[in-house]
Amino acid sequence: MNDIIEQPNLIRWYYEGLKQGVFWAMKCKKCKNVTFPPTGCCEHCGSWEVEGITLSGDATLLYATHNIAPACHPRFEKIAPYVYGHLQLKEGPIVQAVILGVEPTPEALHDLFNRGPVPAKAETIEMEDLPILGFRVTL
């Protein structure tokens, strides 16, 4: 994919990739940095010279917590309570996502914290309307 993707098509491309278990991002041809989620220009240098790449799905979970308030959007009510966290992708960007494989209890989160940064792998979580990105920790 070497041509500039129009924004509505970019969003569709991202979600269609998620449905297929493919995790898309943009790589800048100028500065070589990765932008995720994908946008029409580089978030690092502002260049429009970006191309689509497939992410490995490999990440490191840096921080995790659980939702204690009502879900942030009605689509998340069916999976609540859940764990979410900040992860650094192998390709560089830091993202927020639902964390799979960890119970949303203080004890489980405390154990996870004591392990320090742990590896995680991207997964698609099927929702009623749109798929979402999740990461499963590999403990």
Automatic annotation (TrEMBL):
ChsH2 rubredoxin-like zinc ribbon domain: residues covered: 16-47
The ChsH2 C-terminal OB-fold domain, residue ranges: 54-106
InterPro entries: ChsH2_C (IPR002878), ChsH2_Znr (IPR022002), NA-bd_OB-fold (IPR012340), Thioester_dehydratase-like (IPR052513)
Superkingdom classification of source: Bacteria
UniProt protein name: DUF35 domain-containing protein
